[in-house]
Structure to design on (623 residues):
């Protein structure tokens, strides 16, 4: 399973899916430059569900963005599937995200004029899969998530839970290795949130996959293999599942 | 992603209709105004096109076809002496007063053509025979003349009226292109035209000429000018000279140009703003697409597809509406309306420009878009 972060890379890429070392990130210029990440080390193992928690401004969303390769770190390195993300060109980062990462956002960010199945098919369409095949695969994923009856519904006709399930289907349809989730339950009621995270947990437990969830929601802590507490831009504490932070 | 782009475009009904309305209005305005402008320019050349001659010889200082600067009678023989001239004939052209049977007066454009060859006669004879112009008092009158001089119940073959107190008789009704001044065209022989018009020292308006085989009208016009010092132009050159004079000496060009520019600006403003709003309102979604793996190039292609699709539809509807306007308001030659393919191509290019500029504004916004915004709640 997972171990405490170390300061050098462990080259066992068969075990580690994500490795981050000495990641720093600041925003602003000169006197108003604010350091948000202050040398973060983090490892995520294959088959692991990792929760990233901490108060607002602790740097967890910034860390998620850096891991995803959509924000450049000032220093340090992130490796996913053994690939050094900072060394990739902008277009290669885009391709890497397209081929290996799945995203789930707090606000879902579904395209409002596309139906549920069309929204779920978007990552495949971006990859150049034909419309027919993309819709068929998206339909299958949505069916597995209990959304088979709501395929033709527009996002405005879906409840928050249903929208999030469409977002999860969109994240899963391309079979990504790493699922990055930003506050996936923040807009959901307790029961729906619980069900959603259960589905994410099931995904994360599949071999060769991992899930990172940024959350404030203490009700879902039970689903994490590890809970990484961030404080003031640093990893403050790592707690293994079901443990009380100490 | 073309499918997604088009669903995004057509799915946002309000913005799509706003974009479509802006581009349709812009197209319609430019096509309609451009067609009326070109219709007017066609009317301005009717003095040339209603008289079929390859080369026109006039005073060297002439500016346009309606500006008559009479020539000496010897000009005809002078032109005939130029090598390459097959024939050269006199033409009278001038605005005269016709007195109707009810005592009213109406201004007419009198055209006197060579009586032996009848060269300079109109293309189409609707009633009667143009050869009857050789008979005493004979004139041919155009369809506008019928309308202006009393209507078909009062003006028909055999009807008489007066030109400068000289009685003339209608022997043919011909079809002509309306003139800029909107005077009816009345054709007669050159000799009769001279006899019914007031005394002047010079009455020869133009010399019409034709090149021999193997000499182009352009070459003949050049030779005539070089050897006689007279102004000599092909039919096309004289037409453009007339158009150029109108553009330089009237406000028509500025007026129509301003309206066309306004059409362009309105189209640009509406589509640019709506497209920008469309992009800004969908920024989180575009950000999500970027995060998921859509490149800026892919998003740019989506925006261009959306823009050109709505532009293409707007162009079709706009041209359709403008054509409908031309067919209804301009029917029977009441309105100068000439929709030409160069105008339609020009409008298509203008619309491409509008769509491209509108797209570039949005694409720039997307190029700068940080996908990280999708993680900010």
């Amino acid at each position: 399973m997972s171990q405490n972060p170390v300061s050098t890379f462990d080259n066992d890429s068969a075990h580690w899916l994500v490795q981050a070392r000495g990641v720093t990130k600041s925003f602003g210029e000169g006197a108003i430059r604010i350091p948000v990440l202050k040398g973060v080390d983090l490892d995520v193992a294959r088959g692991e569900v990792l929760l990233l928690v901490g108060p607002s401004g602790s740097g967890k969303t910034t860390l998620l963005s850096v891991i995803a390769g959509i924000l450049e770190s000032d220093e340090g390195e992130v490796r996913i599937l053994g690939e050094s993300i900072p060394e990739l060109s902008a277009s290669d980062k885009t391709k890497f995200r397209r081929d290996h990462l799945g995203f789930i956002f707090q606000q879902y960010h579904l395209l409002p004029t596309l139906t549920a199945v069309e929204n779920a098919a978007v990552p495949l369409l971006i990859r150049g899969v034909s419309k027919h095949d993309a819709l068929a695969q998206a339909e299958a994923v949505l069916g597995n998530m209990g959304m088979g009856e709501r395929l033709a519904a527009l996002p405005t006709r879906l409840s928050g839970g249903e929208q999030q399930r469409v977002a999860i289907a969109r994240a899963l349809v391309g079979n990504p290795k790493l699922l990055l989730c930003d506050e996936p339950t923040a807009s959901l009621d307790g029961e729906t949130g619980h069900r959603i995270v259960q589905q994410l947990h099931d995904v994360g437990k599949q071999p060769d996959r991992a899930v990172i969830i940024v959350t404030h929601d203490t009700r879902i802590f039970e689903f994490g293999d590890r809970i990484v507490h961030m404080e003031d831009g640093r990893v403050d504490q790592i707690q293994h599942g079901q443990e009380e932070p100490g | 992603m073309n499918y997604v782009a088009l669903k995004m475009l057509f799915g946002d009904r309000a913005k799509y209709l706003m974009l479509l309305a802006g581009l349709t209005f812009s197209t319609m305005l430019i096509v309609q105004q451009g067609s009326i402008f070109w219709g007017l320019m066609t009317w301005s050349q009717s003095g040339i096109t209603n008289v079929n001659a390859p080369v026109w010889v006039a005073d060297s200082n002439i500016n346009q076809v309606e500006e008559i600067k009479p020539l000496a009678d010897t000009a005809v023989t002078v032109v005939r002496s130029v090598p390459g001239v097959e024939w050269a004939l006199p033409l009278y052209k001038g605005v005269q007063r016709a007195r109707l049977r009810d005592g009213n007066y109406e201004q007419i454009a009198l055209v006197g053509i060579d009586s032996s060859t009848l060269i300079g006669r109109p293309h189409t004879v609707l009633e009667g025979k143009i050869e009857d112009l050789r008979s005493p008092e004979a004139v041919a009158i155009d369809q506008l003349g019928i309308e202006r001089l009393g209507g078909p119940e009062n003006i028909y073959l055999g009807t008489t009226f007066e030109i400068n107190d000289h009685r003339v008789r209608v022997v043919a009704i011909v079809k002509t292109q309306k003139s800029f001044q909107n005077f009816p065209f009345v054709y007669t022989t050159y000799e009769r035209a001279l006899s019914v018009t007031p005394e002047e020292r010079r009455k020869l308006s133009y010399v019409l000429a034709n090149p021999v085989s193997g000499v182009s009208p352009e070459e003949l016009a050049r030779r005539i000018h070089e050897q006689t010092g007279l102004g000599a132009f092909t039919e096309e050159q004289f037409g453009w000279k007339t158009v150029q004079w109108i553009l330089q000496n009237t406000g028509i060009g500025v007026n129509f140009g301003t309206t066309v520019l306004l059409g362009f600006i309105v189209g640009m403003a509406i589509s640019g703003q709506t497209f920008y709003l469309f992009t800004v309102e969908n920024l989180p979604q575009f950000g999500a697409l970027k995060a998921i793996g859509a490149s800026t190039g892919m998003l740019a292609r989506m925006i261009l597809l959306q823009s050109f699709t709505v532009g293409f539809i707007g162009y079709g509807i706009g041209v359709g509406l403008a054509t409908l306007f031309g067919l209804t308001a301009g029917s029977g030659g009441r309105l100068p309306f000439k929709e030409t393919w160069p105008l339609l191509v020009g409008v298509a290019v203008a619309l491409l420009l509008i769509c491209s500029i509108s797209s570039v504004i949005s694409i720039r916004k997307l190029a700068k878009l940080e996908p990280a915004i999708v993680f900010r709640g």
Remarks:
- The beta strands of chain A are 16-27, 34-45, 49-53, 75-80, 83-84, 101-104, 178-182, 210-214, 226-231, 234-240.
- Chain A has one domain: 16-25+38-240.
- Residues 190-204 of chain A form the longest helix (15 residues).
- Confidence is low (pLDDT under 50) at residues 1-6 of chain A.
